[in-house]
Amino acid sequence: MSFYRSLVLTLAQNRLVTSFATKYGMKLGASRFVAGETLDKAIQVVQQLNAEGLVVTLDHLGESVAHKNEAIEATNTAIQIFEAIDQSGVQSNVSVKLTQLGLDIDPSFCLENMDRIAAKAKEKNNFVRIDMEDTPRLEATMDIFHKLLDRYGKEHIGLVIQSYLYRSEQDVTELGKKKVNLRIVKGAYKEPATVAFPNKKDVDMNYIRLVQQHLQNGCYTAIATHDEQIIHTLKAWLKANQIPHHLFEFQMLYGVRNGLQRQLVKEGYKVRVYTPFGKDWYPYFSRRIAESPANTMFVLKNLFKS
């Protein structure tokens, strides 16, 4: 972890900083990365993105929960998102984290909650993607996903695979046998060198390899990266191998590389914007600020304007 990122994340945990940011953060720049605190506001943002030719994944922000009532509340919110998508007619699906649905409390309880969400996704002819978290939770996540995949099918439920893990190549091979819809990411958790590539170059090379592997198996692949060099490399490969556009999409975060998102749309690619919302936005916002000094400057400019 870089010194800058470490410093920002440490400051973000300071009580005074947290209090100030929670009170004024949306005005100072959090709205660039977070689509509001309410579902209604998020739907408005989705409508704006759709008007620009972008599709969306809505994600209700929240960290790992410790109580069952919190997990049930998060489950109900995910179901409400599907209802709001259906009623508004926007082009969006939904992303969830299993720790927010009670994975750390009881995997069986989490499965019940996730089953309700997947059932709603199928009822609304929509799609839910399970985010992948750190390796201690990987096997439990895989177990829940495979049980739900058998019930609801690849048209309604998908998974995330992280390219910094050594095991991901084998996971993609196995998931490819079931034609699973995969979102390929580099990975954001701090993992030991015993399970993850320590060098960025190896992570990047594996990322490209996993995307190519899954597409060559004829499986739908979400290429989730802001790395322009990787995008350039994969665009050339996609064209050279005549990969049909209906088999893949590019994915980026709301508020990050906006110009590149729009440029890809102009070039005829499908681009999906991961769009988070909710009252528990501060931890997510802190991570976005920690990623880049430019993001910090954006917030400071808003601070001096106000």
TrEMBL record:
This protein's UniProt keywords: FAD, Flavoprotein, Nucleotide-binding, Oxidoreductase, Proline metabolism
EC number: 1.5.5.2
GO biological process: L-proline catabolic process to L-glutamate
Superkingdom: Bacteria
Annotated binding of substrate, by residue: 97, 287-288
Gene Ontology MF term list: nucleotide binding; proline dehydrogenase activity
Cofactor(s) essential for the protein: FAD
Note accompanying the cofactor annotation: Binds 1 FAD per subunit.
Regions annotated as coiled coil: none
Domain Proline dehydrogenase, first and last residues per copy: 43-299
InterPro entries reported in the protein's UniProt record: FAD-linked_oxidoreductase-like, PRODH_bac_arc, Proline_DH_dom, Proline_oxidase
Residues at which FAD binds: 132, 162, 186-188, 200, 225-226
Known pathway: Amino-acid degradation; L-proline degradation into L-glutamate; L-glutamate from L-proline: step 1/2
Name of one Pfam family that matches: Pro_dh
Catalytic activity field: L-proline + a quinone = (S)-1-pyrroline-5-carboxylate + a quinol + H(+)
PANTHER family from the UniProt entry: PROLINE DEHYDROGENASE 1, MITOCHONDRIAL, PROLINE OXIDASE
Protein name in UniProt: proline dehydrogenase
Organism: Thermoflavimicrobium dichotomicum
Lineage: Bacteria, Bacillati, Bacillota, Bacilli, Bacillales
